[in-house]
Structures are given as C-alpha cells and as structure tokens.
C-alpha cells in the first residue's frame, strides 16, 4: 500500500484545516494506510488533536509561518526532499494553494500531488487563490474540493480537468441530541473580522424584538475582535444577552451543542464550516448566509436549516426569529439536519478518500 502524506503550512494550530487533516490522517492510518502529516512551520500555540496518533508527524521549519530567508529555504528544501525520498511511492495531499506553490517543484516522480482546497470558489475568486489554482493545479494528479458545486465551478473557471469532491468529516457521532428547549443561540468560531459576529449580534438584537421570551446569544471563541464586539452588543442594546464564552476545547463542545437550540453563522465566506455539521449531528438547526457550495451541501434551506442571501442582516434576523419563536420548527429542522449529517460521518468520508485512492491507482 502506497504512502499518503498530508502537508499543511502549519499542522498544529487550532483551526478547521488542521482539525480535518488530523481527523482524516488518524482515520486512514487506522484502516492500515501509511500516513504522514507534515507541518511546513511550527505552530505558535500548538494544539494536540490526536492523543495517540497512528500516523507520523513532521515539522520542517523551526520557525512559525512567515517570511523565510534563502538559507533557511534551501535547508528546508533539503529536508523535504530527504523526507519524500524516505517515504517512497505515494501521494502528497497539499492543503492550500500556498502549500501547492511551495511543494510542487519538490515532489519526486513517485509521489504524486493532490491539491485539497478547504475554501469555497466564491472566496477563491476574490483573492489570489483562484489565480494560483488556475496556474498550478492542472499539473496535479487530482484537485479536491469540498462540494460538487465547488468542484464544478473550479473545473469551469480554473479550467481544471482533474476535480473531485470530498466532504469534511465529523470527528465523532453523538449518541444524544439537544432538547432544543434552551433559549440559546450559538455562534462558534474565531472572533475575527471575516466571521462577521457583528452581523450575528445585529440580527440577534432584531430577532429579540420579535420574540417575547428572553433569549441569549453565546459566542464561543476568542480573537482580536472581542473588544469591538462587546461595544457592538452594547450599542445594539443586547449587552446583557450576549455571552462571550472564550475558547472552548473541541472535547467540550458536545456540552455546548447539547445546550443550544439554534446555530447562527454570519461569515463573509466559508468553505464547509465544521460547526454547522457538528451542530446538525446534535440536532441543532443553523441559520447562515448562502455563501458557498459547501454551505449548501450542509444546509438544505427550509428542510434542514435556513439559508439567507449573503449580507442580508434583515433576512437573517427574520429567519432567526422564526426559529427562536417556534420549538416545533426547531425540532423539525433539527431532526432533518441530523439525518442529513449522517453523510458527513467519519467512516463515510474515509470511504470517499479510499475511493479517490483507488481511482488514482487505476
């Protein structure tokens, strides 16, 4: 069986790309594959995703991600070539356009390249990513995206003949579901500008005016936007109802989902956010902006949750108020969301990865 290598710019930071990488790596190693995870740089604040990894871990640079001098770059290239030679035949899964640009010229003939894009086409076309994908990814053996919609859009607009779609996996499957009786909306993610928690707070404030019961919005995460978001909640008149919970470890998130009734996601862009799939697995429906094919693969609007036009805070508030005001609607959508989330269970996603490897072996 050939080796499978996952390469990240930084493999050990607390983040969605890293979490998916370690989850898939551990799962495939558990199925008997030889798996390696490479971090090109060390993490500033390392997070251990797997207590007893069955895969091998490597860090190339001793420094955190950032500019690298020519001498350090040459030494790193030497380490990477030596590592690839030791690993032998197989595939290298490169988890971002930056990693593809960095590694493509270093791959030996017996290690084929797979690009794995964790964002959406909508995001890529607004950044340098689309140009990078268009320039480099046709040379890869396979280009993997988060949804069939995204794979089709990249095939058309980046002229890729080698697209494939694989969902991000849930790391586990809960045995219990939320009762959906708590008057609590959840917001999960880094408190960063792109996540637009200010819009979620504004929508929550507007929804509260339509719902007589006293609901709370719990924001789970940490980041540089915290002071501004506190001020925004105060200005919106809901400072007493917005609870900033700070960082909660992935292992403790089950309790948060069990105590929630609605998930709100107001990001400017998302690939296929794990928080939506996790909430769905606990039977918690989501209200989100319709920003990507990955989002649409997670939420079937009106059936498993609610999607509203990107940036339309008024529509978001109306959808949020509908769910806050109706336990029956929350339960209807939540039950359907959990059934839909079955397709993101780890075993099914690992089956997809093995189908990809079998396709490449033909």
UniProtKB/TrEMBL annotation:
Residues 184-339 form the Glycosyl transferase family domain. Gene3D superfamilies: Glycogen Phosphorylase B (3.40.50.2000). It comes from the Bacteria. Keywords: Glycosyltransferase, Transferase. InterPro entries: Glyco_trans_1, Glyco_trans_4-like_N. GO terms for molecular function: glycosyltransferase activity. This is Glycosyltransferase. It comes from Spongiactinospora rosea.
